[in-house]
Design brief:
By secondary structure, the protein is of the alpha+beta class. The protein has ten helices and ten strands. Helix content is 40%, strand content 18%. A seven-stranded antiparallel sheet has the order 1-2-3-4-5-7-6. A three-stranded antiparallel sheet has the order 8-9-10. The radius of gyration is 21 Å and the shape is globular.
């Protein structure tokens, strides 16, 4: 892996793109578009908010919001129903012991999400889901993650509202700061997963995977642990023009992982893991061939990034891959399509 270029940072403010009718039809076809009893704008009717402080007394940049009694009587049961809709296809029998414990709001970032905590009153276990303004870039990112990564993603849309499941895992920034305490065996496994994650992001052009935009799923194994890095922020799906922004190795926030990889891996090992990940992506493309074709029939007609960024990325990918396949691309959807075609060695359709 190359050293980090600290001058490469994503655009400070991403443009939001509405979901067009063609994408809406795709979401309807595959069960993602549903009629929901609560939309994003309904949650804006809170009348009080307080800063949310973590267990160490630090500001989380989230605010817990409160609603008047009349609002809660209608809002809270409907939020519980949305949770049931995501996890049990709306089976209301599981709702009897579930309730809303808290709603948090974050003004930091592009999507300004609400986070809803659902608690099981029988055992005090809780889960979360998020309600955001629907953005076409993010929806494409979620769909590609679901189809091309080792992870399934639960999300729903209703007009301009996006519902996302909470993706569990240790926040990447906390994990990165703790890797030096892991055993050598675990550190090598961490390096392997970072290389594979780096490749997944690059192949499908998911950008801005700084440490706080992914989590780490840690699974105890016979010897040591197994690690999986999972993206949790999909705002920067094929949006930026700079190639390096699609490679997590170039972010200063991931420097410790890069240094660890340079310590334990040579070029041959890195190449092996990259090829392993590309093979897995190719297998997923074959398994989801028809659905991916439907997705790209829509994505290749959509606008999800400014033209100057499209032109810049075309040029940089052409130089990187030493190919002319990107020359005729007119938007980001077509560029992603060509990137994936390079992985499988042929056209997807």
């Amino acid at each position: 892996m190359k050293k980090i270029d600290r001058s490469d940072i994503p655009s400070k403010k991403k443009i939001s793109y509405a979901i067009r009718p063609e994408l809406r039809s795709y979401l309807l076809q595959y069960g993602r578009e549903r009629v929901l009893p609560v939309r994003y704008t309904d949650l804006l009717r809170f009348n009080l908010s307080t800063p949310l402080i973590d267990k160490d007394g630090q500001d989380t940049l989230w605010h817990t919001v409160y609603y008047n009694e009349h609002e809660m009587e209608d809002l809270f049961p409907n939020l519980t129903y949305i949770y049931a809709l995501m996890h049990t296809d709306g089976d209301i029998k599981v709702m009897e012991h579930l309730s809303v414990a808290r709603i948090d709001y974050c003004t930091f970032g592009n999507s300004k999400p609400f986070r809803v905590r659902i608690i099981n009153r029988l055992n005090d276990n809780y889960d979360h889901f998020y309600i955001k303004v629907a953005d076409a870039s993010r929806v494409y990112g979620l769909e590609l993650e679901n189809l091309l990564s080792p992870n399934t993603i639960l999300y729903l849309t209703d007009n301009n509202t996006l519902i996302e499941e909470h993706i569990p895992g240790l926040p990447g920034d906390i994990f990165v700061n703790s890797v030096s305490n892991a055993t050598k065996f675990d550190q090598i496994r961490i390096c392997k997963e970072f290389v594979k994650f780096n490749e997944r992001c690059f192949v499908r052009l998911l950008g801005d995977m700084r440490s706080y935009n992914f989590v780490v799923d840690i699974t105890p194994d016979i010897e040591g642990n197994q690690y999986r890095l999972r993206a949790v922020d999909f705002d920067q799906q094929s949006y930026e023009g700079r190639l390096k922004l699609y490679l997590p190795q170039f972010f200063k926030e991931n420097l410790k992982l890069v240094q660890l990889s340079m310590q334990y891996m040579n070029n041959a090992t890195i190449r092996q893991y990259q090829e392993e990940e590309r093979t897995l992506i190719s297998n997923r493309i074959r398994a989801e061939h028809h659905r991916l074709n439907d997705l790209f029939n829509v994505m290749c007609m959509d606008e999800i990034a400014p033209i100057p960024k499209v032109q810049q990325l075309k040029k940089e990918l052409t130089n990187h891959h030493q190919t002319t396949v990107f020359n005729n691309c007119e938007n980001m959807g077509q560029i992603v399509y060509e990137c994936l075609s390079l992985v499988v060695g042929k056209r997807l359709n």
